[in-house]
């Protein structure tokens, strides 16, 4: 997760202007002030960056940054369940 987490963190700071010191693994996307439009954009940015399609449940406001990174790792490893 460290590389994936760092990439997600970088995307949040550069594309969504979330202050770096606010991003921690246990913080939810809602706590980082991402609204529904930002979540949709995040899914697209992550798809472009990682080449995998994120399940909508992992781009919800209650999802933590760590859960997003873990889901990306699972998708990239081919171990995530399809919905």
UniProtKB/TrEMBL annotation:
Residues 2-76 form the Carrier domain. InterPro entries: ACP-like_sf, PP-bd_ACP. Pfam families: PP-binding. This is Acyl carrier protein. It comes from Streptomyces heliomycini.
